[in-house]
Amino acid sequence: MIRKWICRNCNVVVNQNKTDINQFYGQYEFEELKKTVGIWTGNRTRDEQIALLDYIVDMLKEDICSGSAAKVLMSSFSSPFHQFIPYYYKDESGMKHSALSKERQCVSLGEAHIYICPWNKERIPDNLFRLKQVPFRFDNENHKSYYYTDIDLCHVYNGNHSIHIGIYLKKGEIESDVCRTELLYPHCHTDGEYWYNSHTGEKISKVADFRIAALYYVAQIRYKIKSEEI
Predict the structure, then answer these.
(1) Which of 183, 168, 131, 175 has the alpha carbon at shortest distance from 154?
(2) For the purposes of burial, counting CB atoms within 10 Å of the CB of 194, is it exposed (0-12), middle (13-18) or buried (19 or more)?
(3) In b/e form, how buried is each residue of 135-160, taking b as 16+ CB within 10 angstroms?
(4) Whether the Cβ atoms of residue 8 and residue 18 lie closer than 8 Å to each other
(5) Dihedral of the CA atoms 66, 68, 70, 76 (nearest 10)?
(6) What angle do the packed helices 210-227 and 46-70 form, to 10 degrees?
(7) pLDDT, greater one: 75 or 207
(8) Does the model's pTM come out above 0.70?
(9) How confident is the model at residue 142 (pLDDT cuts 50, 70, 90)?
(10) DSSP string across 153-172
(11) At what angle do helices 21-41 and 210-227 cross, to 10 degrees?
């Protein structure tokens, strides 16, 4: 028997056997965000537009970072992922470039916005009790992350459990590889479900979390407005 339900807000029937309901609602929320951005920034001064977009970016970062860490508590397993935002892009001529920098960024676990997905909740108690007693120490071989400029957010993809507890206890620092997000803006865009090459319309990859796509979308608009000549 095929189970179906209706999204009350958008009057669309969803087939449970074929649709990821989280992705479905994510698409709806992404479209609502786009409408909000359009309404809020219409007929506003440049400074007002930037202030409103700053607010949206900050709210999205708060939501993304708080929600990602708690997912594993409500499931048997929470799969982490490596790619937060694409860090390779193709320019107008089709040449491939990297947005990764050779520099490193020191990230405070007690202050920064950090997206992290602890994937095995059984590892959390021991890390919690251990790091309550000893300082957090950065391990260059285990603790892996990217810091995204302009968005000002760090994505941890390895060493998740000890870093997660460091964040919770607000102690310690990590060193992150740097992705120059602003280099991506002219060449990469998203519809909330996929990342696209802006020159060809070619799909680059599937979005791992629609909230990340929403954050990128708003930051991309903000960067364009900031870059415009006054």
Answers:
(1) 175
(2) middle
(3) ebebeeeebbbbbbbbbebbbbbebb
(4) no
(5) 180
(6) 160
(7) 207
(8) yes
(9) very high
(10) EEEEEESHHHHHHHHHHT--
(11) 20
Q: So where are the chain's domains?
A: 62-227
The pLDDT assigned to 79 comes to 63
Q: Which residues pair with 105 in a beta bridge?
A: 176
pLDDT band at 15 (very low <50, low <70, confident <90, very high): very low
Listed in order, strand segments (DSSP E) in the chain are 4-7, 12-15, 88-90, 96-98, 100-108, 114-115, 144-148, 153-158, 173-179, 188-190, 194-197, 203-206
Model confidence band, residue 84 (pLDDT cutoffs 50, 70, 90): confident
Structure tokens at 95: 């040449």
Residues sharing a CB contact under 8 Å with residue 18, sequence separation 6 or more, in sequence order: none
pLDDT at 4 over 60: no
Q: Specify whether the CB–CB gap between 172 and 135 falls below 8 A.
A: yes
Per-residue pLDDT averaged across 188-214, rounded?
95
- Which residue, 176, 100, 81, is CA-closest to 138? 176
Q: Which residues contact 112 (CB under 8 A, 6 or more apart)?
A: 152, 153, 154
d(CA 198, CA 120): 37
Q: Is the pLDDT of residue 16 over 90?
A: no
